[in-house]
Design goal:
By secondary structure, the protein is of the alpha/beta class. It has one domain: NAD(P)-binding Rossmann-like Domain (Rossmann fold, 3-Layer(aba) Sandwich). It contains eight helices and seven strands. The protein has a seven-stranded parallel beta sheet, with helices on both faces. This is SDR family oxidoreductase. GO terms for molecular function: oxidoreductase activity, acting on CH-OH group of donors. InterPro entries: NAD(P)-bd_dom_sf (IPR036291), Sc_DH/Rdtase_CS (IPR020904), SDR_fam (IPR002347). Keywords: Oxidoreductase.
């Protein structure tokens, strides 16, 4: 499949962005992707599941046999579109709207998922926000607090709420970023949270190993999602991903199979690890 595309002129005014107005729209799943029942009978909860990587993960999980609950902020149409895609795969999709910076909402989201499906087997901590600033002096206390609350505090909240329901063989998957390894001068606070997620993943994996709950992460490189045109100006968007060895941004469909692998029994001997779908950039981490 040819993933080359023209991203010129793509900007949006507010995060986390709307997928339905993107042109070209992200590739969510390849037509050639064949599910093989690797997640049959499982239930997954995915934060930021309305669009981008989260949407692709939801649809791939459904094609592999899982019911899914997706958490989103206020992108109602994107969430409904994701639900329709999941249902087209013959699986159920629960929509959970709210602010993941709230510990109480995170608890309620897990509770509603378990009440709806009777169980929870896979937690995907994926939602994030980013706000470019050219210098550390420009990062306000409010921005710093919000970025950490969304990008790492919510991981703690959801994990704490989910653990009473997870059993041996179940899985937690965290979305970090290539910025945790390469850094990003204009995304200092965002990159810091992504580094924290790597440490969180490795530490939690050790903590839960005796319980048989695996904890891994995925560190995407530049991926074409609504967060990109809603973060950067048109000049940055036009150049997005072209500095990779592949000379292009990746698509959510090229990332989601990593989550399938980590969620299923194929990765039964992996915990505390990070996968790197990043267009060929070597990070040695």
């Amino acid at each position: 499949m040819n993933y080359q595309m023209d991203t010129r002129g793509q900007t949006q005014s507010a995060q986390p962005g709307i997928e339905e107005v993107m042109d070209p729209t992200p590739v969510i799943i390849r037509e050639s992707y064949r599910g093989s029942g690797r997640l049959q009978g499982k239930t997954a909860l995915i934060t930021g599941g309305d669009s981008g990587i989260g949407r692709a993960v939801a649809v791939h999980f459904a094609r592999e046999g899982a019911d899914v609950a997706i958490v989103y902020l206020d992108e109602n149409q994107d969430a409904e579109d994701t639900k329709s895609m999941v249902e087209a795969e013959g699986k159920a999709c629960l929509l959970l709207q709210g602010d993941i910076r709230s510990e109480q909402f995170c608890k309620e989201a897990v509770s509603r998922t378990v009440n709806a499906f009777g169980k929870l087997n896979i937690l995907v901590n994926n939602a994030a926000e980013q706000h470019p600033k050219e210098h550390i002096r420009e990062i306000s206390a409010r921005q710093l607090t919000d970025t950490f609350a969304t990008n790492i505090f919510s991981f703690f909240y959801f994990t704490q709420a989910a653990l009473p329901h997870l059993r041996k063989g179940d899985s937690i998957i965290n979305t970090t970023s290539i910025t945790a390894y390469h850094g990003s001068p204009a995304l200092l606070d965002y990159s810091s949270t992504k580094g924290a997620i790597v440490a969180y993943t490795r530490s939690l994996a050790g903590s839960l190993a005796e319980e048989g709950i695996r904890v891994n992460a995925v560190a995407p490189g530049p991926i074409w999602t609504p967060l990109i045109p809603s973060t950067f100006d048109s000049e940055r968007v036009e150049k997005f991903g072209k500095d990779t060895p592949f000379k292009r941004p990746g698509q959510p469909a090229e990332v989601a199979p990593c989550y399938v692998f980590l969620a299923c029994e194929d990765a039964s001997y992996m915990s505390g690890q990070v996968l790197h779908p990043n267009g060929g950039q070597v990070v040695n981490g």
